[in-house]
Design brief:
Length: about 170
């Protein structure tokens, strides 16, 4: 997978891996199943890049997915800024876009990854591209936009290009 080119912003959307069934209503604490761990591991091998800013849901399954993605960075990779936010959990499309916009305060990052949940993560992909996109567990959608400004690009509905949709085979 290639990094963003000059004048392009890249948004990497990752849905968490498969999680265990909720126990007595504790959805937030659900952990990855063995299959979910396998899915996240497969995805980590497909990425082969390090995204400078990663925004992660604080829910256990999303945090575990992100940890697996970070466990084996490519050699010579730059450090990542990781922002773990409870607000990503249960966030809809507009809330996720607001979180990304407010987290990108210096505007220097050309690439951002969000590790979150459906339906919000799929809704972001759908609204930004204008395409019908459904993300299964541990899927990755990479979007690109020709822009210098995250705040402007994030609200430019239907103008983002789908660069890649990795459907997890695990």
């Amino acid at each position: 997978m290639n990094q963003a080119s000059t004048g392009e912003l890249r948004l990497y959307l990752v849905r968490h891996g498969e999680a265990e069934s909720p126990k007595k209503g504790d959805d937030f604490g659900r952990r990855l199943t063995p299959r979910g761990i396998q899915q996240a591991t497969w995805l980590s091998h497909q990425l082969r890049i390090v995204v400078p800013l990663v925004i992660v849901s604080q829910a256990a399954r999303a945090a575990e997915t992100a940890e697996i993605l970070w466990a084996s960075p490519p050699s010579g990779a730059s450090p990542q800024k990781r922002v773990v936010l409870r607000d990503v959990y249960m966030a809809g499309q507009k809330d996720l876009l607001r979180l990304v916009s407010s987290t990108v305060n210096d505007g220097l990052q050309r690439e951002i990854m969000v590790v979150g949940h459906n339906p919000g993560i799929s809704q972001v992909a759908q609204v930004l591209t204008g395409q019908d996109i459904h993300m299964a567990t541990a899927d990755l959608v990479v979007l690109g936009h020709r822009s210098e400004s995250w705040p402007e690009a994030l609200w430019d509905e239907g103008a983002w290009q789908m660069i890649q949709h990795l459907n997890n085979p695990c």
